[in-house]
Amino acid sequence: MLELLLIPAFSVLNRIRGGGFGAYNLPGHPRFYVTAVVGLLCWPLYGWLTAAYIAVSYLAWSILPWGSWYGLGRFDHPDESMFEKVVTRISFNDDHVAFTIRNFLGLLPAAVLIHPFMLMLAPIQTLLYELSWIKQPKTPITAAELLTGGMWGWIVVTLVG
Q1: Euclidean distance between CA atoms 84 and 80, whole angstroms
Q2: Residue pair 60/90 in contact by the 8 Å Cβ criterion
Q3: What is the DSSP string of 3-49?
Q4: Mapping DSSP to helix (H, G, I), strand (E, B) and coil, where does residue 78 land?
Q5: For the chain, which residues make up each domain, given as ranges?
Q6: What is each CA distance from 24 to 20, 33, 69, 71, in whole angstroms?
Q7: Is the full-model pTM beyond 0.90?
Q8: 35 and 152 in contact (C-beta within 8 Å)?
Q9: What is the per-residue burial (b if ≥16 Cβ within 10 Å, else e) of 97-115?
C-alpha cells in the first residue's frame, strides 16, 4: 500500500526534473538529483538492486536530447544535435513521431532492466503531452510532466510491485 505513494512522488519528481518548483536554481541539471531521489524512494520498497535499475532507467530516459519535439509541432527546431536531426529525419519531420521515437529509445534500458512493457510509456507520453497542449494551453509542459511522472510511478508500482 505504501508503494502507491510512488505515483504522486514520481509525478512531482518528474516536474522537478523538468525544472519546475525552482529546480533550475540547483547546481547542475535537476535530472541528476531526481534520479538519486527515485532510487532512494524505491530502495526500501524493492531492494537496492531493483531501485538502482529503476533509477538508471529513469536517468537513461531523461538524459536523451528532447529537442523541440515536446512542443509536438508548436515550436521551431533551432540548432538540433546530430541525434535530433536523425530522429527528425526518420520521423519525416513529424514531432509526434519524433517525440515517440525519442522516448522509445530512452526507455530501452527500462525495458531490459525493469519490464518490456515500459516501452508503452513512449506513445502514452506523447498522448499525455498532446492532451496537455489541448487541455492546458497556458501550462502544457507543467501538466505533461506531472502526468508523465505519475505514469512512470504507476508503471513502476504495477510492474515491479
Answers
A1: 5
A2: no
A3: GGGHHHHHHHHHHHHTTTTTGGGSSS-HHHHHHHHHHHHHHHHH-HH
A4: coil
A5: 2-160
A6: 7, 11, 21, 20
A7: yes
A8: no
A9: bbbbbbbbbbbebbbebbb
Q: Which amino acid is at 97?
A: V
Locate 161 and state its grid cell. Answer: 510491485
Evaluate whether 114 touches 153 at the Cβ level (below 8 Å).
no
12 in Cβ contact with 146 (< 8 Å): yes
Using an 8 Å Cβ cutoff, are 42 and 113 in contact? no
145 closest CA partner among 46, 31, 25, 45: 31
What was the pLDDT predicted at 67? 86
Mean pLDDT of 40-61: 98
Q: Confidence class of residue 78 from pLDDT cuts 50, 70 and 90?
A: confident
- What letter represents residue 116's amino acid? P
The 10 Å Cβ neighbour count of residue 58 is 29
- Judge whether 68 and 95 are in contact, CB under 8 Å: yes
| Segment (H or E) for 155 | helix 140-160
